[in-house]
Design brief:
single chain; 267 residues; alpha/beta; D-Maltodextrin-Binding Protein, domain 2; 2 domains; 7-stranded mixed beta sheet; 3-stranded antiparallel beta sheet; 14 strands
Amino acid sequence: MKKEIYLLLISLTLLLPMFASANTFIGHCRNYPPELIFEDGKCKGIIPDLVLDIFSELGLKVKWQKVPWGRSVIDAQKGDVDLLIRHSMTPAREYYLNPIKYADATRTFSFFKSPNFKPDIKSYDELVKVNVGAIRGVFYSPIFSQLELTQLTVVGETRQLLGMLERGRIDVVVTSKSHDIHLFEDKFDKATLTETFYNPNYISIPNDSKLMAHYDDIARLMLDYRKSGKIDSYFEKYDAPTPEQTFDDAPACEAVNKGNNISAVCY
């Protein structure tokens, strides 16, 4: 009898790591405080705190890796990551990502000029004729993503764009609050052209992730957090503005040119 109990305990001990592994999923993190902060091997901030609480309710865990967004997109298509957080959705991404919305938002993009580039940029017709710098894999806006730019220079990080713009290797940089706009505001002249559009925020699970088995439960809990107002507490904890929440289908949007500002009017 003692031998049988001993063997049972050994079997349970061997099975525990396998059970833990089955409920632990790979999530990608990057630095965008206060929403995302990767520090000491952990992902912290508003969105990771929210995600971890929802996962905890479901008995799930996340192992975080610090990965730039461009590589996250590639890994998601290959099925090498289970969870992406704080991102926009595009028609292309819908082929391999299953989104869960946590906030509604609008987004404004601006364009900054190299000291060597003197003309103003007042329209997209003018923008397509110059060398534009952008970050690889980033969705900037519905209009910008469909432009047929004569010259587009893509890099991996904002600091590379800063150096190239300063040296005149590119004429203009596209950027926003989500892409360290303050680094450009302090050093470069801003073009007249801007664009504002509807841009909800999501977490997503790639098609080939084993986490897809829990998608419905995660989406249900996220919706409960949004409708109850509980999600606001995560933003308040970090002294960040609480997001808007709407629960209808995403509005249809039409680009409207208002002088030098292009806005997405949503119905």
